[in-house]
Amino acid sequence: xxxxxxxxxxxxxxxxxxxxxxxxxxxxxxxxxxxxxxxxxxxxxxxxxxxxxxxxxxxxxxxxxxxxxxxxxxxxxxxxxxxxxxxxxxxxxxxxxxxxxxxxxxxxxxxxxxxxxxxxxxxxxxxxxxxxxxxxxxxxxxxxxxxxxxxxxxxxxx
Length: 158
Prior knowledge:
CATH topology of the domain at 23-69 and 95-134: Sulfite Oxidase, Chain A, domain 2
CATH superfamily of the domain at 23-69 and 95-134: Oxidoreductase, molybdopterin-binding domain
Largest sheet: 2 strands, antiparallel
CATH class of the domain at 23-69 and 95-134: Alpha Beta
Strand order of the largest sheet: 1-2
């Protein structure tokens, strides 16, 4: 059994160390109208992973409408060109989970002097998330890179 003093100290410590709930209702900060560009409030950077509802959004064209039959093509600079749907990628390669920072190249633009054009992001155009899927290294190994291949070019649906 613990004495009253130890109990009160432990309770105070537990309250002091709990995750902050004061900003739980804080919303993303909006830049303009459409397409959506939303900044994560700095108060959310007190944890390892940024919650999805407050993860920044950077969009030039709005969300793409993707067909489940859409394929990702790997070609040029490989011996074996490949194409996969998202489901085929999941079935063909081991699933790997990585926690990583995702940041817009314009993060902190509002702090530049002289001012530069574009959305005036403060420090909220970033977040840390957990991503799960096929490892690019494994996909490229299956395509068998040419010995002279030096770069990968990505073209998104958006």
